[in-house]
Description:
There is one protein chain. This protein is an alpha/beta fold. The protein has two domains: 8-30 and 176-338, no CATH class; 53-173, Response regulator (Rossmann fold), CATH 3.40.50.2300. Helices cover 44% and strands 16% of the residues. It is built from 14 helices and eleven strands. The chain has helices at residues 67-76, 89-98, 110-120, 136-143, 156-173, 182-190, 200-212, 219-232, 237-246, 252-257, 261-272, 275-280, 282-300, 317-325, and strands spanning 8-14, 22-24, 53-58, 83-86, 103-109, 126-132, 149-153, 177-180, 309-315, 330-333, 336-338. It has a five-stranded parallel sheet with strand order 4-3-5-6-7, with helices on both faces. Strand 5 (103-109), helix 3 and strand 6 form a beta-alpha-beta unit. Helix 8 (219-232) runs antiparallel to helix 9 (237-246). The longest helix has 19 residues, at 282-300. The two termini are 18 Å apart.
Amino acid sequence: xDKNKSSTTSSVTSAEYSTNVVSAASKQVxxxxxxxxxxxxxxxxxxxxxxxxxxVWLDANIDEKKEDFQKSLTELRKIFVTVEPFTxxxxxxxxxxxxxxxxxxxxxxxxLGQTTVPLIHDIAQLDTIFVFCxxxxxxxxxxxxxxxxxxIHDSIQSICMQLTKATQSCDHDAIPMSFISNRQISEAASTxxxxxxxxxxxxxxxxxxxxxxxxxxxxxxxxxxxxxFCREQNIPEIQINLLQGNYHEKSPIWWYTKPMFLYGMLNRxxxxxxxxxxxxxxxxxxxxxxxxxxxxxxxSANFQEAFTVYRGQELSQKDFQNLLDSKxxxxxxxxxxxxxxxxxxxxxSISESM
Length: 354
């Protein structure tokens, strides 16, 4: 994993499904929304969070009425529900410092970027900066001085390619874990009074899983409710129509792994236990879980013994230490997981700032 972040990365093992199969650990659903707004007073911008990340675009020459800008915006909104354009540096900086619950990706013109990047580089939620400029050679020197700047780009398509990889990695690493030691398990089993010692997120996810799998869903009514909810959250209409019109033609695993809003929304809701969003996706969670169970039963006959699968994920120093301290205990994931049977190299990167 090539990330200039102060973090610790390690591989985690579990034994379930075969290569590159999405594995189920607990079920829950997605997240929230946002509005593509103009560069005026950002404080007046309502936003409900549906992704783990958002995009800010800073350029003094942005004209939202121009066709070129609208075409670029359309491409960016295939990745981001929230795209916030700014022409004013002060308003942009105020907005960046107001975000504390999402990662921020920034596109900036070279002219404004050269003076603005030094002011914003240390903002914790700001993950990556892309400089958008036709004259790439002229600005390479100053851009190399800042770790968060990922190159000078002369096309929005080039930036979108990098953003797709970055946001996929963000979603992957945002999956939370609950670490439960053998001692906690033993104490909780000894008396009901000790159940409150287990992590609340673990308890909530178990309860939600038990409930959601017992509900008798009407797929048509549930889909209509989800579609209405997604429209309220400003999900691109083309993606909503694709899901609604073709849902029964593809499998739940196909939809879950397709690069569109569903994966990110689902994982964020599971991460923060957003019950409103999780309930909207309840029918899909149930279908995905049932398909995984069926695949597991069909494939398990081909294996005479348990096997190991692999998954890498970025962890903070604190979580990595909790992982080590919980050896022999329970590692609970609040999501569906993608794993591989092929082992891979992992990176441990520890920074003093962590």
